[in-house]
Amino acid sequence: MSVTLKDVEYIAELARLEFSDEEKKMLTSELNQILEYMEQLNQVKTDTIEPLSHVLDLSNVFREDLVQPGISTEEALKNAPSATEEFFRVPKVLGEK
Amino acid sequence: MVQTYDRLRTALEQGTTTCEAITQNYLSTIYEKQHLNAFLAVYEDYALNTARSIDEKMKRGTAGPLAGMVVAVKDNICIKDRTVTCGSRMLEHFVSLYDATVIQKLKDADAIIIGKTNLDEFAMGSSSENSAFGRVKHPLKNEYVPGGSSGGSAVAVATGMSTTALGSDTGGSIRQPAAFCGVVGLKPTYGRVSRFGLVAYASSFDVIGPLGNCVIDVARVLQVIAGHDEKDSTSAYVPVPEYLIDIHKDITGLRVGLPKEYFDESLNSEIRSAIESAVNVLERNGVIVQEVSLPHTKYAIATYYILVTAEASSNLARYDGARYGYRSQNATDLYSLYVKSRSEGFGEEVKRRIMLGTYVLSAGYYDAYYRKGQKVRRLIRDEFQQVFQEIDCLLTPTSPTTAFKAGEKLKNPLEMYLSDIYTTSANLAGIPGISIPWGVDTNGMPIGVQLLAPQFGEPLLLRIAHFLESHRTM
């Protein structure tokens, strides 16, 4: 499996990132180098092995569904780059891709 | 003034010093050594005021277990009403709304928090060069790196800017800088310490842990910060033992394993001799040292960087320029707000890892990389569990080399990743590890040796580490 410039552009779009042409070329070669290294995992036989997502083998942790104090609207908006008294303010959403 | 907490505490109890004087002393060192760039924020007024109030408590005899311990905190851990930058432009002005659980616990124990330490951006790196606020310098040779990502914390402890420090360890970020700077660094078992208030990097790997100038100091900090937390559902429901009770106990008859895969040709020969001398100390004192095998070790780095970048790409999706963090001024619509804010706000290594993680999770590659990585992770974890049936603890190098020169590995990301070769396995398996200083190389740079124990095996880990430390021959 080899990563092309087109793949890098597609992945960048998924990740909501953009790069200059030079950066894209650089990333293509770096990703190829790193992924090639990762392909050594193909040497490991794992047909009968279950994937491990959590080292402590925890299953779902439940608690009582009780109302607890949370943060206020004012606090929630404290770090906002732009906000009204009650809402985050962002550029126009309609009419884009 | 590099000093252990026990000596400070004794001096406090005898009345020969005060918390205020101790704090003042550390503050002077911080200002004197500003060129090392270890701190991103220093809480001078807060620290001195807290110190004075703890001095009052000392007089009344109501001071907590860490009274007078001055702690530096890695700047990816939240402290209420303080910035938590993560070494990133993205969060340069972000102010925490709450205390991380570990911070609350330190405050309750009367520790004095002196400031926030520099790090690789979002803890992604092994050299503390990836910070948006400039690299951290090695205290012994400034053109060298202090290791990373908790480089600022390691430097703070090594140079007497604080008694201890908190770091976070996702793949070696506490242990490797501890080794490079000649201090003790403990990565606890996954889930032993609450992650609430730690800015997420790779959630199934991340753990907060202490750095200090001796094993007892890190044990004391662990005692305070460990335990289940209802705000972190992945924190373990395992009772917290008394870490100091058995720490001085005799180690005769214990079994220590040397995993042969950790001693291949990539290991620096001076570090190899350091391990040999540690083995001699153990054997002379009745420990049975034997060679063991962890055959999947060579797959650890590949497995680690697949899973960690996948988790990072998902965790860092939250930085969208809409609700908090950096917002680009060049956006024209919502889509470009996301893209431009993220592209301008994140540094190079963070973007590289997000790209890699997005790739391994994308349709068509998920099974080949991500799922494969999760399967190999199980093999690696189970292999450790099996080895720990025969032995109590593993002894390995912490890092294949001592501190390297700044810039040396920046050009080649894979080479930088490979410097984590001995530390990532512990995070893949969720087991605790500790790095303790063991001499210096011919260049005068510190060497670290690592001990690894089974999950929740911290008492034994600390006991063997303390024994080695007290019998240091190098």
Chain-wise SSE layout:
The complex is a heterodimer of chains A (about 100) and B (about 475).
Chain A: H1 5-14, H2 21-38, H3 73-76
Helix pairs in contact in A: 1-2
Chain B: H1 5-14, H2 19-32, E1 39-42, H3 44-60, E2 70-74, H4 101-108, E3 112-117, H5 151-158, E4 164-169, H6 175-181, E5 184-187, E6 207-212, H7 215-225, E7 255-259, H8 269-284, E8 288-292, H9 300-315, H10 334-345, H11 348-361, H12 366-390, E9 393-397, H13 413-418, H14 424-429, E10 433-440, E11 446-452, H15 458-470
Parallel strand pairs in B: 2-3, 2-4, 7-8, 7-9
Antiparallel strand pairs in B: 1-3, 4-6, 5-6, 5-10, 9-11, 10-11
Helix pairs in contact in B: 2-3, 5-6, 9-11, 9-12
Beta fraction of chain A: under 5%
Largest interface: A-B, 53 and 70 residues
Number of domains of chain B: 2
Query: Structural class of the secondary elements of chain A?
Result: mainly alpha
- CATH superfamily grouping of the largest domain in chain B: Amidase signature (AS) domain
Tally the beta strands of chain B: 11
According to CATH, what is the topology of the largest domain in chain B?
Amidase signature (AS) enzymes
What structural class do you assign from the helix and strand content of chain B?
Answer: alpha/beta
Shape label of chain B: globular
Taking all residues together, what is the mean pLDDT of chain A?
92
Number of helices of chain A: 3
- Following the backbone from N to C, one meets helices and strands of chain A in this order, namely HHH
The SSE string of chain B, one letter per element, is HHEHEHEHEHEEHEHEHHHHEHHEEH
Per CATH, the architecture of the largest domain in chain B is: Alpha-Beta Complex
What is the CATH top level name of the largest domain in chain B? Alpha Beta
